[in-house]
Write a structure and sequence with these properties.
This protein is α+β, with helices and mostly antiparallel strands. Helix content is 30%, strand content 22%. It has 11 helices and 20 strands.
């Protein structure tokens, strides 16, 4: 067992015997998912937060809807849980189930089943997962953060202008059963299931049975599926196979608990890529880790979200920004972004959208959950945390290789983290002086002023 502990505060136990494959960036992600859909024998079930009708899958496979229509035409049980926002503001890429959306499905002759599910207030049903052949020996799950939109999520290799950097994790083995359990729980209690425009292709009383046995072992990784679920969203806390009943009506915060425990357990290195800078509780643990000599490198969007800049301008969340600035006082910490350059040397932005943390090259987590309060306390999220030194180390090397544009496999985690800081610092100078011969994509950000105009 790893020195990085799992948690006991969630619905799902630690599962042994899993095979895992991290998938980096949109084109590799959706190419592999489409391959799994095309080989599916029984079912394709999806939790989708954001999806647009003009998004295209790689390799001329057409739209998300084309892929599902073909699967349904083969006789597969195809189901999608879509998020229905409570407000139009900022949610134009959600497939909300409006009259126009339903007209679109009707014109296509769509035969698969869909339900819409709300979160409370302005929060989001933010889980992103695909489950292939649920409950069968060939069951495969995918958990991650890539959206099905045209805002740069379909990315081949190194992201290009206007693109996003993001991840999914492919899971085979007993942990896939917990992804199955999550889908069943959400499908059966989707908020709009009994509303006239809240379902498609079936009636609102079409319920699924919870899984009763585990998927067969496929590998050696220890895995735990973790979630954020706000209190009152779901009521049926039926136990997952070989698990225990969980009071889901009271909510779940196992992702936040896991982040805190993993950071507290770190001995050498913490590598983070996230769409958001961390909330105070997480940043305080990171500072404690820095004080005991742990190297901490964090990749975030170089161009901040508007709400971060607005919070800075209004003087909101002062404790958060103060704690972020405090981290930058430690030489073993770097806050960094990524930026590409075209053939003429002109810079372009690459948006960091993934949610991953790797500790000591032995443990990692990948999923939909950002490090801001919205994800950790209010939205519905799913992460997959795992212990497997070979996979965790390879994931860190692959991510760094993309950002540094060089192979770091010969370096241990501390040496690679030091190189990361060196390159980020050197490229910051190039960024500020207009020099275009960058080494890789990485450059240092000033944590103390992050988000200022």
């Amino acid at each position: 067992m790893s020195h990085v502990p799992f948690v006991e505060s969630g619905s799902y136990p630690v599962r042994a015997g899993n095979a895992l494959k991290p998938l980096i960036d949109g084109t590799p992600v959706f190419r592999r998912i489409c391959e799994a859909v095309e080989r599916a024998r029984h079912s394709v079930w999806i939790c989708a937060a954001f999806a647009t009708i003009d998004f295209r899958m790689p390799d001329a496979r057409g739209s998300f809807f084309d892929v599902l229509d073909r699967a349904a035409a083969r006789g597969l049980d195809v189901r999608v849980i879509f998020w229905r926002p409570n407000t139009l503001e900022g949610n134009v890429t959600a497939f909300r189930g409006t009259a126009l959306d339903r007209e679109f499905l009707g014109a296509r002759g769509t035969r698969w089943r869909a339900r819409w599910d709300r979160a409370h207030d302005a929060y989001c049903q933010h889980q992103k997962s695909w489950l292939i052949d649920a409950g069968r020996d060939c069951e495969i799950a995918f958990v991650g953060g890539v959206n099905m939109t045209l805002r740069g999520d379909s990315v081949p290799g190194h992201p290009g202008p206007g693109q996003r950097h993001d991840l999914y994790l492919e899971i085979e083995g007993p942990a896939a059963t917990d992804v199955h359990h999550n889908f069943t729980q959400r499908w059966n209690e989707a908020s709009e299931r009994d509303v006239e425009d809240g379902h498609w292709g079936h009636t609102g009383d079409d319920q699924l049975a919870f899984p009763t046995s585990l998927s067969v072992p496929r590998g050696r990784a220890l895995v735990q599926i973790q979630r954020t679920v706000h209190a009152g969203r779901y009521r049926d806390g039926a136990a997952t196979p070989e698990g225990r009943p969980f009071d889901i009506a009271g909510g779940e915060r196992s992702i936040l608990d896991q982040y805190l425990r993993a950071i507290e357990a770190a001995r050498r290195t913490i590598y983070i890529e996230n769409q958001s800078v961390p909330i105070v509780a997480v940043a305080e643990r990171l500072e404690a880790a820095l004080k005991r000599g742990v190297d901490v490198n964090m990749l975030v969007p170089a161009e901040v979200e508007p709400f971060v800049r607005e919070a800075r301008r209004r003087g909101e969340r002062q404790a958060l920004f103060a704690q972020l600035g405090a981290l930058d006082r430690y030489p073993n910490f770097r806050l960094a972004g990524i930026q590409g350059h075209d053939a003429k040397g002109t810079p372009y932005g690459i948006y960091v959208h993934d949610k991953v943390m790797i500790v000591d090259d032995v443990w990692a987590t990948i999923g939909s959950c950002n490090l801001h309060a919205f994800s950790l306390e209010g939205s519905t999220e799913m992460n997959c945390s795992f212990h497997d030194p070979e996979i965790a180390c390879r994931l860190r090397c692959d991510l760094m290789a993309e950002h540094l544009c060089c192979d770091v496999q010969a370096l241990d985690d501390r040496a690679a983290m030091a190189l990361y800081r060196e390159v980020a610092d050197a490229n910051r100078y190039r960024h500020d002086t207009g020099v275009r011969d960058w080494r890789g994509l990485l450059f240092r950000l000033d944590a103390a002023s992050y988000g200022m105009d």
